[in-house]
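Lecture 7, part 2: worked example. A protein chain together with protoporphyrin IX containing FE.
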Amino acid sequence: MAEASLYEQILDYANRADPYPLYAELRKDPVARQADGSYVVSGYREILALLHDPRVSSDVRNIPEIAAEREAQPSLPSSFIRLDPPDHDRIRRMMMRHFGPPHCPGRIDGMTSGIMEIVTNLIDGFAGKTRVDIVEDFAYPLPVTVICELLGVPREDEPRFHRWSQAVIETIDPTTGTVAERERRSTEVRAELGAYMKELVDAHRRRPGDDLISAIVTDPAIDLALGDLLSAASTLLVAGHETTVNLITNGMLTLLRHPRVLDRLRHEPDLVVGTVEELLRYEPPVQLLSLRRSALADIEIAGTTIPKGSVISLALAAGSRDPARFPDPDRFDPDRRDNQHLGFGSGIHYCFGAALARLETQLALGELARRLVGPRLVADPPPYRPNPGLRGPRHLYVEFDDVLPA
Ligand code: HEM
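Predicted complex, written out as structure tokens:
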């Protein structure tokens, strides 16, 4: 049997707890052709160049196996994360109208006290215990509650959309079946999630609330096809709970491995801003954009030509630890200046929810550091979820001596 390539080793669950030495090996050939003809890009400069290159498409209909599946079984239109300009830019702009600058610059800041209240209640729930699972008891319920409130999704529907959300995540996991199989499954799940969103959109049209979906459907300046709105709202719901959970959990794990930083956070609350940026570089939740882009032309990069039509994977986590860009990249340093990590991507698809994710994680880690007395890890490394691209612990058991009042 052929020896596993470096990229295959990275995808292998056995290396989930610490893929970083493999990323370092991978970077020696920053634009590496794989046996299946796709390219894996792992150098910071090369990833950044491709994220800003209009010859690199995010439209998965340019990938023949996916185009064939879509033709066989039409479903909801692609969400804007999977579209190119001009459709991408138009839909993103409309979705952003009630979420951030320039129309709603205060929206995220205005959520601070509500998020803090959720954080406080969750940590209050630790009282009387000496051990919790940071994932189940904190890092998962926090972003889910926040995204539900933001979108106007009833919190009690969580078991339904949790199942769809997990299924969507599986369909972008390169270790689960072939591209065509994943696309088939994705079509089914997107249809179910879209039908749920349709009920919600109808309800918000009839009785608008104080949420993002109501704001969008009642704004006469917004001209968005129903299918595009359903796809975009589904993406926000999934993105809103499958990524921030990992940033908060990776954050607590990293702080417990760096007790001096944890201690500084208790006395220097402002340090949490640099800490969260450094986490996005050092332990990013989105490690790989796997088989997500394709070349619309021959692209010359780092002495290699990526031929037109090739599928491209971007190893963001490898780029953010590239020593050619970041001095001493394997050191966790919350004081790092000039920290333009790739944790939220870059270019036109730069994370739509970055400001919200930053705020939630800053409040979460700041309060965990301040209120937990004597926290320690029960197992290091913790057990990981299977997905190599959206990477994070399945559980993070932490013991502590006491919980300080809010
Ligand atoms: C720590 C948490 C998060 C991380 C690490 C993260 C990371 C990313 C990354 C790397 C991308 C770029 C994808 C690409 O280039 O193909 C992205 C895009 C996106 N993210 Fe996030 N994300 C997070 C939280 C969120 C939240 C909370 C939301 C929703 C409120 C969200 C919504 C989106 C959307 C809609 C896009 C697509 C943007 C576009 O195509 O223009 N993300 N995110």
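The chain has one domain: 6-403. The chain has a mean pLDDT of 95. Keep this in mind for problem set question 3.
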